[in-house]
Amino acid sequence: MIFAAPIGVTQLAAFWLLSLGFFFSLIRAFARRSPETGVRRDSRSRLGILLQSVGIGLVGFGRIRMVLAPLSPAALLGTLAVIILLSGSIALFVASSRALGRNWSLVARTRSDHELIRSGPYAMIRHPIYLAMLLFLFGLAVCLGHWAQLVVAVPVFLAGTAIRTRLEDSLLEQSFGDAFRDYRRSTPALFPKVV
Length: 195
What we know:
By secondary structure, this protein is mostly helical. It has a single domain (6-29, 40-186), classed as Four Helix Bundle (Hemerythrin (Met), subunit A), CATH 1.20.120.
């Protein structure tokens, strides 16, 4: 049996309300895409997408122990954690997809009119959308009380992320050469520098 920490109904409600916001922002990003011309794709990134999805899915499996009183300190702390993690996830995803504009895509690819974005969240990290997805994964774990699943889910998610970042970085290096290499040297991939 997989361990499940006790949760309160407020954690679950906060997660579901905020996850609707996350998925709405994802749908908006898809809807804002423009027709693609001169696209260079790397479909191997689909393996990364699959692994990231499995990592997130692993956190969702297991029993739920909804035994905390809604206003108990533990339930309120869990609810606050869910709100912080999912709000951060949504804000980071929205800011990142807006900064990317027409460059945003689910699968690794570059366009003939692709731009190297270094503003917004991309000024601090090269792949902020994957950090937003990681925050979502942690928010789901807190929501369901599935902390133990993180031991397997996080490495699977990060393996998928490594595949995607490597392929995306390769395509950007092919398109932008030294400009991208300078950006890669000065900007971490997933976690901002703490100085």
